Amino acid sequence: MEMRSIHAAAELEAGHPCVDCPVRLLAICGILNSEELRKFKTSGATVKRAPGETVFFEGDVASHVYNLTAGVLRLSKLLPDGRRQIAGFPFPGDFLGITMEDEHAFTAEAITPATLCQFSRARFDGFVDTHPLLERRLYTIAAHELAAARQQVVLLGRKTAAERVASFLLMLDARRISSGSGEKLDGFITLPMSRVDIADYLGLRIETVSRELSALKASRLIRLTTTQTIRFVDRERLEQLAEG
Amino acid sequence: MEMRSIHAAAELEAGHPCVDCPVRLLAICGILNSEELRKFKTSGATVKRAPGETVFFEGDVASHVYNLTAGVLRLSKLLPDGRRQIAGFPFPGDFLGITMEDEHAFTAEAITPATLCQFSRARFDGFVDTHPLLERRLYTIAAHELAAARQQVVLLGRKTAAERVASFLLMLDARRISSGSGEKLDGFITLPMSRVDIADYLGLRIETVSRELSALKASRLIRLTTTQTIRFVDRERLEQLAEG
DNA sequence: CGAGCGATTGATCGCCATCAAAGTGGGTGG
DNA sequence: CCACCCACTTTGATGGCGATCAATCGCTCG
Question: What per-residue confidence (pLDDT) applies to A178?
Answer without folding.
Answer: 45
